[in-house]
Structure formats: structure tokens, C-alpha cells
Amino acid sequence: xxxxxxxxxxxxxxAGLITTARxxxxxxxxxxxxxxxxxxxxTPEELEALGAExxxxxxxxxxxxxxxxxxxxxxxxxxxxxxxxPILTDSxxxxxxxxxxxxxxxxxxxxxxxxxxxxxxxLSPEKAIAIQQALGSDIQMCLDELVALPAEPARLQAxxxxxxxxxxxxxxxxxxxxxxQEGAGALPPAGGPSLFGIVQGGTVLELRRQxxxxxxDIGFDGYAIGGLTVGEDRDAFxxxxxxxxxxxxxxxxxxxMGAGEPEDLLEAIGAGIDLFxxxxxxxxxxxxxxxxRRGKVSIKQVRHQRDAxxxxxxxxxxxxxxxxxxxxxHLFQSGEILAMRLNTLHNLHFYLSLMREARQAVLxxxxxxxxxxxxxxxxxx
Amino acid sequence: xxxxxxxxxxxxxxAGLITTARxxxxxxxxxxxxxxxxxxxxTPEELEALGAExxxxxxxxxxxxxxxxxxxxxxxxxxxxxxxxPILTDSxxxxxxxxxxxxxxxxxxxxxxxxxxxxxxxLSPEKAIAIQQALGSDIQMCLDELVALPAEPARLQAxxxxxxxxxxxxxxxxxxxxxxQEGAGALPPAGGPSLFGIVQGGTVLELRRQxxxxxxDIGFDGYAIGGLTVGEDRDAFxxxxxxxxxxxxxxxxxxxMGAGEPEDLLEAIGAGIDLFxxxxxxxxxxxxxxxxRRGKVSIKQVRHQRDAxxxxxxxxxxxxxxxxxxxxxHLFQSGEILAMRLNTLHNLHFYLSLMREARQAVLxxxxxxxxxxxxxxxxxx
Lengths: 381, 381
Known about the structure:
The structure is a homodimer of 381-residue chains.
Chain A: E1 3-10, E2 13-20, E3 23-27, E4 29-31, E5 33-34, H1 44-50, E6 55-57, H2 59-64, H3 68-73, H4 77-81, E7 87-89, H5 93-98, E8 101-105, E9 110-113, E10 120-123, H6 125-135, E11 139-141, H7 153-183, E12 194-199, H8 205-218, E13 222-225, H9 234-244, E14 254-256, H10 262-271, E15 275-277, H11 280-286, E16 289-292, E17 295-298, H12 318-322, H13 325-333, H14 337-363, H15 367-380
Parallel strand pairs in A: 4-15, 5-6, 6-7, 7-11, 11-12, 12-13, 13-14, 14-15
Antiparallel strand pairs in A: 1-2, 2-3, 8-9, 9-10, 16-17
Helix pairs in contact in A: 6-7, 7-8, 8-9, 10-15, 11-14, 13-14, 14-15
């Protein structure tokens, strides 16, 4: 089980330490997404060198391929992917609602046809936990019911109440599973996994309050905010975030799921969020969209063809130290695998550095000024 | 210009040292193929860690994409791809004859439509050299005329005589280019590039003798055998190799172009060959075909699914040290980029280790016994 220590705060922004059996996570922290047991294009050694402290694994994807039984037979997700530090797994719920052909949602769980071969799959709170425990992740997530926005408040309310009932079932299944694993000596010596609840409620502030209270009544090791950056407008995002983050316990980690634009991350840190995950840095990298101090660069553009300078002169990543923009453009235009690698290294370095700098700014009591200056430069490109 | 020193020999097998301005190459040596300014899927740092001492760049591919003018503007091929050690470039001839839609071959050169967009391109001996000198490679190759086998001896003879005339033009263009680069201070301080001639003649032994003599009359820094492993049967390969290698100067490097099966390499080393290049280890890696001490392994097979052991228990490469067969299969089946990386690392490690062991066996005077034992194990899988 994790512990969370506040190292400092600045306004609502926090700098903390999450201690798990597999290592410490300095917050605010960004979790690179390792969908199928690999952060696409790079190795665990490269992740470590970039300073990554935790990665995210996707329960939905790993359940379908190779299956949690295979991962367990190969020693669990850490050994499988050769990553000894903490792993957070999601519940699979988001992918079921976004990728799969949804078949039926009822009180028992979700039935869907998967996106690979259309086979029917059933996911319940208990099953979502069982999969995550077979994977052996350090932070596990409750299965929640997602509602596509815009939605009627009544629909949102029904979903968040089901989310709370499912959260209680997840917690019971989680405890039972941990007890069984403890009995079998299958947990790390330093302690077992943690479980996070997920606050829903769309952009209706009163529903967010209800959801946050219901989940805290059940009691979790940390709390996530789900259902944001799913297409709502900027003001609704800001208002919901600013309203919801302070409803979560100060002494536990807070995780904003799926948000990824640098602007969103800085705003969320300012609102008191500690953890983030998003495919944006890795997916954009593979599409040739690269994050620099002065904004995004589309590396395929012909203006980079003979540019012998680095992608970002202010960047210390291996890509910027060793390669020119002209070479990066050539690799990308030629569809070379090395393009995906070098671009991914750079974008993740950007995100992980952003978190380190934000943390330093919080600890130095100058978060707002730092964030403002960062965004001014970022938008100036 | 390179120098070649024999460190030892065993029968016809040789262990040597090629010294170039950019570093030493221990022979026998395998050159990983870096078609478009990158050995597909891996970095120069990884190549160094694997012990690679020289890589091959493809003149045809780099001429089309990004163009030698772009590479030159970005500091030459070494700086472009961040590889400071020796590079050999081919002449482009093989790709013209194998990939492009051939339009016309006459005494002046070759006109073809390229494989990317069908645009018409002209390649002559002078142009092949000019491109290689713009790229800045350390070992450059003459443009030769290739003939598809089987072919009439008269056709083969005409081609090898044109090859000799083209070789003389290549040498003249090479000298002129080097002199101009020297004048411009554009060569490495330790010395300029070298030029190799290519022996042709199909599987007609008398024609191979003629070609070898004609090229030595012109005089090159090293000699390659072209036009083998292009579909001829095993006996013809062996007979041509055994006949041709001893026709080449003892005091200069000998390079068998394009041969790649481990059996072929060991036979060629036994015949006195020093250098090899082939896409086999890297291309097979990307197709999931992996070389082990006990033969090739198709990693996609379901029998590997729950195999927690390494791909090759006798292998010290990063892939075998850190990952299970089950994980490698999962990555490959999921189309993950990491599959291409880990497989390529392993296969190149296999080839480069094979060369190191062969060299040690030559120096120890036990090459034939070592090769026999290696092949027995290799075929036992």
C-alpha cells in the first residue's frame, strides 16, 4: 500500500512523494502510457534514463493480448516488460466505452465486443480487479461507468451512483484478492498494491461533489478525476477541475485521468493534481508532432530539410543532443523506426522535465509565475 | 586511404586489421546495412555497444531520399546519422538492377525509373562516385554492370568488360574528387576515402579470373566479389567462391557482397574473405525470424507464448538478458516497435559475435574445426 507525503505546496499546487513497494514517485508526475506492456518505441532503460518513475498499463488491452494469464505465467507485468518500478493499471472501463462495440451495461457489469476480433467479453468490477491483480500492478483502478457528453443530469447521476456501487464492489474484491495473494506469498516484500476510486459527474459541479463524497465514504488509497478532457469546452474543464480537486483528501494522491496538453497539465497542477497519464506525447511523437519550449513542431515540414540545428536548442534529451532537425525530418519522411524512437524520447523528456520543473517551482513557492512564464514562451512559437 | 594488415591466417582463412581515418576494422567483419542513414530500428550507440565497427550505406536509396546534397548540407553521412566510425557505401548498381524499373544500360551509364515515384534517374560511374563522395563514406564502391543469371557466357563477358571500363572511370573520378576535397580541406585529417573494385563473371570460373585480373590491372584499395548469392545453386556458389577469392591480392581486403546466411559466411571466411554485408539479420529480425546457436527461431509461433526463458540461453545480448521468449512473441504479435528493436539487437549480436569467434578461431589456428562444430550445433536445432 502506498503512502503519500506532502513535501510542499504553493497555493493549491502540491509537491509530494508517493512511496510504494516498488519505489518512490515524486509528484506532480506524468505516467507514460505502456498500453500493451511496452511504452511504444522505447525500452524500460530509456524510460529510467528519462527519469520516468511510474508507467501506466492498460487492463483492457492486456486482457485481450496476451491475456493476464499469460502475463502472470511470465512472472507478472513488471517482469514481463522488464520494468521494476511502479505500474498503475487502469480498469479497462475507458477503453470499453471508447474502443469496443458496447453491447450492454447493467448493474452486473459491461458486455462488449472487443476491437480486435469482435469476440464478446464481459467486464465487471470484480473482473477488472482480478485482471489487475493477475497483472500485479502497484496502483489499481476501480471500474467506473462512463457517460458520453453531453448527457442529461439524470443520466449522469445514475452513472455516478452506479460508479459508487461498483467502487464498493471493487474495494471488496481488491481486499479479498490482496488477502489471497498475501497468503500465497505473491506480494512484494515491501507491501501490496493500492486502489484508487474515480470521481465522475460530467461537468455538473454538484454531481462531482456527490461522487467525491460517495467515494470517500467507501475509502480509497487515492482518488482520480475521470470524465474530463473528453470533449467538454475549456471553461467547463477549468470550472470542473477547480471545483473537484479541492473536494479530494489533502493527504492522498490525486490523479487527473487522460489529460495531456501541457496547458491542461499546468492548470491541473495549479488546482492541486498530482498524477497524470496521456498518450499525447508518445502518440504525437509517432505522428511527427514534437513538443518544444516554443510550442509544437511538425517535423515533416520541408523547412526542416536542411536544418542542421537541434529540434529544441534548450533541450538536453538524447535526440536534441545528437541529431539535427534535418535528420529527424528525413527519418520521419522515410518511415524509419528510428524516427518513432527519437521522437518518443524527445516528447517524453519534454513531459517529464515539465513535471520536474513544476515540482521545483511549487517547492520554491513560485508556481504561478513559473507556469505563466512557461506558457508565454510555449505559446510564442 | 585504408591499410590492411594480416594478423594471422589458418589455411585460406584470414584475420586482419583494416585501418581507416575513422577507425580500425577487425576482420573477418560483418557490416550492418544502414540503407537510409539508419540501421533500421537501432541507434548508433547500440551498434557500438554490439561491437559493430563499420556500417554500410546505400547510395541508391540515399540519392533518392534525402539526396546527397541534403546529407552534405547536414555535415555528411557520418554526422547526419551520428556514426563516427567507418562507413562503406555501395555504388547503387545493385539496387538499380534489382529495385528500379530499368530503362536503358549503355556505355555511358544506367537510366532507370526509381522505385519511389517512378521519376527517371541516370547513374554513371562518375555519378556513383560523386554521390558517394558527397556522402563522405570511407570505403566507396565502383559501379558495376550486373547480369541476371542464368546468362550466356558472351553476355557475362560483355558485362565484366564493361564493368572493368566503368571501374577505370570510377577510379579516375574518385581521384579527381579526392583531390578536390583535399584542396577544400573537406577530408578527415587522418586521410581520405578508399575505393574498391567489384569482380563479376557469374559462375563461369574463367570469366571470374579475367575480371579479377582486369581490376587488379587498374588497381584498387580492396576488391569485392559481386554477383554471388543471387540465386545460383549451392555448388556453383562454393566453386565460384573457392576459385575467385584466391585470385585477389593477399595484402588487401576482400569483400563478398550481399551474402548473409551464417553457413555462407563461414564458408567464405574459410575461402579467405574479410568483409560481409547483408540485410538478412536486420530484415529477418523485423519479420520475427531470429538466429540462435541452434538455428533460426520463428518467434511468432504459439509454442513460445508462455516460455519464460530467453530466446537463446547461450546469448549475452540485451534482448536475451532481459526478456523472455513469451514477451518477444507478444511484442511481435502485437506489432510493437520494441519487437523490431529487440529482435534486431539480437540478430546483429549473433552476426557480430560470429565474426569475433571466427577471428579468434583463425588466430588460434583452429578455424575449420570451430566452423564445423558451430554448424553442427546450428543445424541441430
